[in-house]
Amino acid sequence: MKRKSLFLISMMFIFVFSASTSMAGGPPQVGSTLPDIKLQKPADAAELKYLGLSGSGEFTVAQIKAQAVILQVFSMYCPYCQKDAPNMNRLFGMIENNPTLKGKIKILGIGAGNTPFEVNTFKKRYKVVFPLVPDADFTIHKILGEVRTPYFIVVRMDGPKKPEVVYSKLGAHEDIEAFLSEVVALADMK
User: What is the domain partition of the chain in residue ranges?
Assistant: First the structure.
């Protein structure tokens, strides 16, 4: 009987410990600073211009010229991401066609586990109009807490400060207008 109790207590300890350590490495929390992630610059000149970047190589989210950045972690193989692509394109259009928001809010997709070929295939198949970058080896995905897809992180860019996470949630957005309103409010855009 003692042996069985000791076994159960040991198993409970292991379960609690492993759950707490996996929680510690979870997705970025609201109010935290976005972890430093190195992204591959898009090859397309229009996408570079949209992000406020130039040249080739790597960049960080902090280098994007905007007041807020919506990061979408997606996968080419994710059926929810595929279904959400038209909504994300509509969100992009709502931002770009609004003179108050254009240039202030940018959208960037990060293809978790997707090669450049897979990212480009997704972009073409779903006519994605905002920049998508690959994360073929899951490096960025791991830094972001190995989130499921689609996952959205909104960061507020505040001058020389590092990007502050103001939104961090799993799931597609059926009501794009409500999501955009929430982004505007959370990013404290006047």
Answer: 28-186
pLDDT, one tens digit per residue, over 110-165 is 999 999 999 999 999 999 999 999 999 999 999 999 999 999 999 999 766 789 99
Pairwise CA distance, residues 146 & 30, whole Å: 17
The CATH classification number of 28-186 equals 3.40.30.10
Residues 61-86 as b or e (16 or more Cβ within 10 Å = b): bbebebbbbbbbbbbbebeebbebbe
Query: What pLDDT band is residue 41 in, cutting at 50, 70 and 90?
Result: very high
Cis ω before 150 (30° cut-off from 0): yes
Exposed e or buried b per residue across 16-43, where buried means at least 16 C-beta atoms within 10 angstroms of its C-beta: eeeeeeeeeeebbeeeeebeebebbbbe
DSSP 17-44: HHHHHHHHTSSPPTTSBPPP--EEPPS-
Alpha-carbon 158 to chain mean position: 18
How far from the centroid of its chain's Cα atoms is residue 49's Cα? 20
Residue 182, Cβ neighbours under 10 Å: how many? Answer: 15
